[in-house]
Every structure is written in structure tokens, then in C-alpha cells.
Amino acid sequence: MNSAQPFHNKTILVTGASSGIGLASAQAFWAHGAKRVYITGRDANKLASAVSVLGQNAVGVVADVADLAQIEQLKTTIAEHGDTLDVIFANAGVAHNNSLGTTHETSFNSIFDTNVRGVFFTVQTLLPLLNHGGNIVLNASVAAQKGMPNLSLYSASKAAVRSFARSWANDLKGRKIRVNAISPGVTRTPIMENGLKMNDEQIAQFSAYLADAAPAGRMAQPDEIAAAVLFLASAAASYVNGIELSADGGLTQI
Ligand SMILES: NC(=O)c1ccc[n+]([C@@H]2O[C@H](COP(=O)([O-])OP(=O)(O)OC[C@H]3O[C@@H](n4cnc5c(N)ncnc54)[C@H](OP(=O)(O)O)[C@@H]3O)[C@@H](O)[C@H]2O)c1
To answer: Most exposed residue of 105, 144, 247, 251, measured as fewest CB within 10 angstroms of its CB?
Structure first.
């Protein structure tokens, strides 16, 4: 294996890769030799922009992970290209605040349908295409290790994702498939505006909080999380299985 190109000739799927951590990860897989990178998202325009950033060997598939038929269609599309997968990065996720006492059922469903059901059925559906010795990385969150205010649904959904990594590492041992979770800390992506509805002032306040609370003293950039994802998915992590890797600037470690 060429250490500069650890994903040489590999075929990768990154769900939710039209922006943020998913897009940065797709770019990093590409830069490290991937043969083809499949990326997904719900918004066709955003996805097309991401494909144009990635170049000709990226394939964008509009697929909502909360919709099992669309995940099946994703599988069909990959199979029709004649591809199997070496890596699945189940990254697609949403974040909304919820206040205990006034949370509506639709809020519960929207978080769990994407973050838990979506991750479960993405992996289960795509599993037949995943090669022996392949690799799964799940995007969890440090939120599951904290008791952050007004984030109970999001945090619980990510606790489920972390748990999947443990169980599936065991379930898939016969196929030599490793399964790990990445737990990003606060990372500057569009989820802050689009999901958490934060304005510039609130983002600045969050930054100021992190300057004190996290040894890194700042938010992460998406490419810093992508680097940790690539480590988990690479042969360099060949004896790393079932873990949660916190890439959080130390926020949850002190
Ligand atoms: N940013 C952080 O601080 C942070 C921290 C810890 C964990 N995470 C996790 O990191 C992951 C990526 O988030 P991000 O911060 O990079 O945010 P982002 O920039 O908003 O990216 C989310 C991506 O997921 C896609 N997506 C959302 N719902 C989807 C669905 N139902 N089906 C398919 N694609 C879907 C979005 O595209 P469409 O909207 O077009 O579908 C987008 O491409 C999430 O799982 C998030 O929980 C983020």
C-alpha cells in the first residue's frame, strides 16, 4: 500500500456529503487515492455543487436516509455502476434543539428517523455491497457524552449511533469488517445555521465558550474531523474496532 494514497483503488460511500464534515471527508478520500466516491444528500442542487467540487469520479445520488426506498435506490445505483464498496461513512445527520416539556412528536421523529433509523438502514441495506475486510465509520457526536441544554433528542440519537458501532463490530467480525464511530466536537459547518438556527452572535458566543472549555480553544474545521475519519477507515487503524474516537479538541476529556 502506498502510504500517501491509502485509499488507492477504493470505492467509498459518504452519506450527507453535500456540505460540512461529509463533503470534507469525501474530498479527503479523493485526495488520498479513492477510485470513486459516492456522495448523497436530499437537496439535488447542493449535491450537484459538491460533485463539481469533487470532480469526475464522484457520483452524487439524491437519497434521503430517512426513506428506505431511497436507500434501496442508492444501492441499485451503486450496483448498476458495477461497484462494490470498501468504505461506508454513515455521516448524514440532522440537529435541532428541543425543549423538554414542549417537544412535539414530529421533532422526535425527524431526529430519530435520520440519525438513528437512517444510519441503521443505510448500513443494513448497503451491507451486501460492502467487501470482505471493508470498513464502516459512523458519525456520532460528543453531544452523547454531555448533557447539553435543549439537545436531549439529538444527544440520545447519537448515543444510539455510538452503540451501533459496538454491536456491529461484533456482528460483522465474520466478514472482517471493522466498525467505528467518530465523535466530532463543535465543528464549524452549516448545521449551526440550518439545523440549530444559530445566528452570528450565538455562534460567536459558542466560540467564546469553547475558547475556555476545550483545550484546543476553538471549534474544529471539517477537514480536521475528516482526517480522523480517514484514520479509522484506513489500514493504519487495522486493530481499532468498535471504538468511539472523540475529535473534540479535548472538550469531553477534561
Ligand atoms: N458540526 C458539528 O458540530 C457536529 C458535531 C458532532 C457531530 N456532527 C455530525 O456530523 C454529521 C454531518 O453534519 P455537519 O455538521 O457536517 O452538517 P451539514 O453541513 O449540515 O451536513 C449534513 C449533511 O447531511 C445531509 N443530510 C441531512 N439529512 C439527511 C437525510 N435525511 N438524508 C440524506 N442526507 C441528509 C445534508 O444534506 P441535505 O440537507 O441536502 O440532505 C448535508 O449534506 C451529522 O451527523 C452531525 O450530527 C456534527
So the answer is: 105
Nine-digit cell string for 203: 455562534
Nearest CA to 91 out of 246, 226, 231 is that of 226
Three-state secondary structure call for residue 238: coil
Q: Which atom belonging to ligand 1 lies closest to the Cα atom of 158?
A: 47
Q: Which atom of ligand 1 is nearest to the CA of 190?
A: 19
* Extents of the domains making up the chain: 11-247
Q: Catalytic annotation on 38? A: no
Q: Distance of CA 252 to CAs 158, 187, 191, 206, 222, Å?
A: 15, 14, 20, 15, 18
Joined together, the cell numbers standing for residue 178 give 471493522
pLDDT in tens, 133-150: 999 999 999 999 999 999
Residue bearing cell 442542487: 45
- The H-assigned helical ranges of the chain are 20-31, 44-54, 68-80, 105-112, 119-126, 152-171, 191-194, 200-213, 222-233
State if residue 19 touches ligand 1 by the CB under 6 angstroms criterion: yes
Distance 216 CA to ligand 1 centre (A): 23
CA distance 106 to 92: 19
At residue 129, what is the residue type? L
Q: Which CATH architecture has domain 11-247?
A: 3-Layer(aba) Sandwich (3.40)
Ligand 1 contact via 169 beta carbon (within 6 Å): no
pLDDT in tens, 35-59: 999 999 999 999 999 999 999 889 9
Q: Tell me the mean pLDDT in the region 161-188.
A: 98
